[in-house]
Batch of 2 targets.
Target 1
Amino acid sequence: MSAPRRPFLAGNWKMHGTREEAARLARELRGIIGGETERDVAVFPPFTALAAVREALEGSPIGLGAQNCHPEVKGAFTGEISAPMLRDAGCAYVLVGHSERRQLFGETDDTVARKLRAALAADLRPVLCVGETLEERKGGRTEETVRRQIEAALASLSPADLERITIAYEPVWAIGTGLTATPAQAQEVHGFLRVRLRALFPTAVADRTRIQYGGSVKPDNIDGLMLEPDVDGALVGGASLSATSFGAIVRYGRG
């Protein structure tokens, strides 16, 4: 039997927060969960607030991540940020393939795969996001969709690469809608993803890989989600913009 996977709770701040606002939120969060030793925690502020949040979190166990990166190291790509730049800015993590990037900015499976490799090459720890739309779920294509996404992204990567990747299952229909997959629905897809990882990589490595759930996660539903055997954490959106709310999510199960 494999060792329990260490929970990983991450807050995606999306396009919210000036430098001052982001630093204040980071300081508040540090005051609430800065002593956390049993769970991994990270926040993903906007690019413009990375330096301010890095300073506010210095010396704490809360990790810093970015919300996106470009697949190339450098070049004539106006407005883009490369993975090495993020590493230089103090980031340890980066989101790759978030549904809003796929849906709103046309990122393809190939683009996501290239970004994933760029992040790994820059010594970042990618959080690879996968998930189905409401139409795909209603059409019974959930497993087909997440299988395509995960296999395209992880193709030809090594077991050592997978050790540095977190998977985030985020059903598109549950992001920012107030709807949340039930714990059973989340476990069904997480379990399927675990099986696919075992088919692609050695079982021991697949079983160590953390799979987060994302999609309207709140303090009042995190406990039920985290009881499921293949739910290893959460990628939190709106609720991470409040230190009190995100702190309660990080402290799930502790009353």
Target 2
Amino acid sequence: MKAVGIFGGTFDPVHIGHLRTAVELREHLGLDELRLMPSARPPHREQPGVSAEHRLAMLRLAIASELPFDGLLADDRELRREGLSYTVETLAQLRGEQGDDVALCLCIGMDSLVNLHTWQRWQELSDYAHIVVAARPGWHLPETGPVAEWLAGRCTNDPQLLSQSLSGCVLVESMTLLPVSATQIREDLAAGSSVRYLVPDAVIQYIHQHGLYKQESS
């Protein structure tokens, strides 16, 4: 069975932490493709200061310029949809497109899992996809509360199970998550400091070409 991953975020701007995590997720999980999906209007965080068009263009440049990134795709469906970017709606749309022959894997961070109960229709997420949690070494799952109760009976430690069923499993994958902050990158850009080796060169060139992030200098 084909397996497709979904890795969302604002990508404001995309940086090596995003890209390295995407590469490792695809390799560790044996995904046929991993879709990096910029959020237009995330309901749980501050709205991006840079337009959706710029963030999508930077993501596409990053994937194209930083080889080998076989199997990584930029998916703009949330940018094309009006209103807030609810993950459950994205997964339902993808499931409708992919049918019953493709396993979907929603890739999130441990911080998102802990707060999953604040997401729109969060208990339906596993109806459409597996949940893969990228965690630092030494992680631990929630032990009490609604998310802990929801996790009961869903957890697996076998990545191969993800390609044997369409949805429903939760896998925590220990990864080396690079301590790179998009907020700090934006602050450095506003201050005129170098962000080389934190952001792909093609993206840095795009940022300077379009004068992005200068507005945050105030």
